[in-house]
Each structure stands twice: as C-alpha cells, then as structure tokens.
Amino acid sequence: MDLHEELLEHAAKLDAADPLARMREEFDLPAGTVYLDGNSLGAPPRRVAGRMAQVVGQQWGGRLIRSWSEGWWTAPERVGERIAPLVGAAPGQVVVADSTSVNIFKALTAAVRTAPPGRREIVVDADTFPTDGYIAASVAELTGAVLRPVPVDALESALGDRTAVVLLNHVDYRTGRMHDMAGTTALVHAAGARVVWDLCHSVGVLPIELDALGVDAAVGCTYKFLNGGPGAPAFLYVPSRLQDSFDQPLSGWGGHREPFAMEPGYRPAPGIARARCGTPDILSLLALEAALEVWEGVDLAEVRAKGLSLTGFFAACVARLLPPGTVEVITPMDGPRGHQVSLRHDRAEAVMAELVGREVIGDFRTPDVLRFGFAPLYNSHADAARAALALADVLGAPPAGRA
Ligand SMILES: Cc1ncc(COP(=O)(O)O)c(C=O)c1O
Ligand SMILES: Nc1c(O)cccc1C(=O)C[C@H](N)C(=O)O
C-alpha cells in the first residue's frame, strides 16, 4: 500500500470510530470541498435556511411588528441561555448582542470604571487579535488608563497594584496556542485585578468553566465554531455577582430598565439585560438560535477529543508527506492548543490560494501562516488526510513511496 492509501485508510478507521460522525448530516457543505475554515466562518447548519424562511415569512411577514412582543425583544437573553452551557455559565449571565469588538469595549470600560483608584492599567496580550488591542487602546484613551501590551508568557511580572483589568485570548488566532484560563485567572485575581477572556477561538471547541473559575467577563464570536452565520451577533458573559456594578458605557435604550417607558434618563436594567445596547439584530440572532440547536445532546468532551485527534492526525500526515523543513508547525502540537493547525511557509499566501483552487479551504494569515481549522461537528479525519495530501501536492513533495 502506498503512503497516500495508508493515510486515507487510517483516516477511514478513525472516522468509523467517531462518536460525532452523525453530526455532519446537520450541515450543508458542498460535496467535494474540504472545508477547514470553520475557525473563521462556520458552515451553515441545515436547519438554519428553513428557520429563516419561517422567521421572514411568518414572524416578520405574518405577525409584523407584533413579533417584537412575541419573542423578538427577549431573544438576546434567550439565545444567551443556549450559549451558557457551552461556556460553563449558570442561567442569566450571557447575552447575545453586538459584535465581539463592541462587547470588548463594554467589558473593558466597565472594568476600568469600577476599578479601585490607583488601578489604571489595562494589560493586553501583545500578540492579540488586532481588534482586541485596538479597542483596549481606545478604552485606555477614553478612561485615562494606560495600555500595557505584554507577551502572555511575561504576564505575571506585568501584574501589580496598578493593574485594573487584563484582556486575554483563550486560544491565539494565529498559532492556535491555548492559554491556561484557570491558572491565569487565578494569577490576575491574586494581583487584585479583573480578567476579561476573549473566547472567539475556543467556544464550541472545548468545555469552558467561566463560573467555576470566577472569570469577571468574557466575550466571543458566534460565527466561527458556533456556526451562527456571517456577522452573527457576539455574546457577552457577565457573572451575576458583578451585574449590579456592571457600568457599561453604551447606555442605549436596549439596556434600560424600562425601555418602553421612554424616560429621558438612563436607568440600567437589572441582570444581564444591562449589557445590551440598541435594537437586536433579529434575523442574524434567530439564525444563530437555530444553529445552536445542533449542540443539544452534544458532549463537549467528545468535541474536544475529536478536535485533538483531527489536528494531531493532520499534523502527523503533513509530517509524513512533506520533507522535513518544508513547513514550520507553529501550533504547539505537544501542548495546549485549540482546533487549528498553523504552518509557516514563505509562500503561504500563494500556497493557500492554490489549495482553495483545489477546494481545500483554509486561510492565510499575514505574513506567512497557513491556517487549517478543524470543526469536530462536521470535519472528518478524511478531510484532514485529503488536505495534507493536497498540500503536499501543491508544495511539490516527492511522490509518496511504498510505506
Ligand atoms: C480573537 C478574536 N476577537 C475578535 C474577533 C472579531 O471581532 P468582531 O466580530 O467584532 O469583528 C475575532 C475574529 O474576527 C477574533 O479572532
Ligand atoms: N470576522 C471576519 C470577517 O468579518 C471577515 C473575514 C474573517 C473574519 C474572522 O473572523 C477572522 C478570524 N477572527 C481570524 O481568526 O482570523
């Protein structure tokens, strides 16, 4: 058997033993496409199209404006309850609203505003996804705080009695490295500061325990591993113990205690509703609601195990197929990681364009990173093998000999 056949056969064995294999049926994916970009835009769950037709036809079209009091206005909290179990949150602490960028702004500003006098530093991961750093800089400017970008590995020495809040990514978007949420949260708390976690690349990837770890706020996208659709609204977690003092700056009427009283002054709503701002984005929100239904009965431990298996198998295939040194694996394959494998190559942009032309869809991240994201609900080991074979072909690896 040659190496190609061996890898495909191994993949088939792993897929035959996959307890989540049935979940692929829930998704609409073009036949023949290997889709490895669910860490940027998740694939559409089949049920979303039908739900959208119903929402547009029956709710918007049939009930017209009455729909606001028939489930639309309360959708941000209702859909938040579907995300809560995925992040280890008891009910009443997650709302779906706005974008991740906007929610970072709310959470950071609230944290700085309520920090004790003297705590005026915002610490941010120096390698963070850009929007997090940009927003943190803006919050610093608006609140008179000081922005302190630090590499995550140097975090401990940067914390002190001037730290107000720390903003961190759970999984690094470029390398896929996963940071230690339990240890880092404890470290930040020991320094007397608050921590805001960006869960964009970890929600839907592994069990997360926000309540148990005492996290102070968390945000995340819903259009990646939660498959909510392009531009689907983000979520914001504020634990019950901090909700009364959550002094968020975007005091739109959506977060008012009595929005329809149309009062001249702002009185924040009790509970998580105060994290809202303006009118909810109903069509996207209800598409997300349908997409989240696929998680019912899904065991996150199984999702995690499969994600590690897919990424490990893909990296192993790449190592077997490519001569050493062809690519540099920058994802910590022996350490904590999310569900992506990132490879460095000088011609990464052109290589990814070639792969996409062959219907193997990952993405390129500047300056030289090929990213392959694995979504355990719809990706298979066969996808991983096919992607590695296509990559080897594009990079002109010598034809695989007999194993
Ligand atoms: C870590 C991280 N934070 C934030 C965002 C995006 O935020 P927004 O949805 O506001 O564009 C992304 C992806 O786009 C991301 O990877
Ligand atoms: N949000 C995106 C968009 O609107 C267009 C293209 C890509 C994105 C992304 O989500 C990028 C993604 N956060 C990343 O990790 O690179």
Automatic annotation (TrEMBL):
Its EC number is 3.7.1.3. It catalyses: L-kynurenine + H2O = anthranilate + L-alanine + H(+); 3-hydroxy-L-kynurenine + H2O = 3-hydroxyanthranilate + L-alanine + H(+). It comes from the Bacteria. Pyridoxal 5'-phosphate binds at residues 100-101, 129-132, 198, 201, 223, 253, 279. The modification N6-(pyridoxal phosphate)lysine is found at residue 224. It is an enzyme of class 3 (hydrolase). Its cofactor is pyridoxal 5'-phosphate. The keyword Membrane does not apply. Pathway: Amino-acid degradation; L-kynurenine degradation; L-alanine and anthranilate from L-kynurenine: step 1/1; Cofactor biosynthesis; NAD(+) biosynthesis; quinolinate from L-kynurenine: step 2/3. Keywords: Hydrolase, Pyridine nucleotide biosynthesis, Pyridoxal phosphate. InterPro entries: Kynureninase, PyrdxlP-dep_Trfase, PyrdxlP-dep_Trfase_major, PyrdxlP-dep_Trfase_small. Homodimer. Belongs to the kynureninase family. Catalyzes the cleavage of L-kynurenine (L-Kyn) and L-3-hydroxykynurenine (L-3OHKyn) into anthranilic acid (AA) and 3-hydroxyanthranilic acid (3-OHAA), respectively. This is Kynureninase. It comes from Streptomyces thermolineatus. The lineage of its organism: Bacteria, Bacillati, Actinomycetota, Actinomycetes, Kitasatosporales.
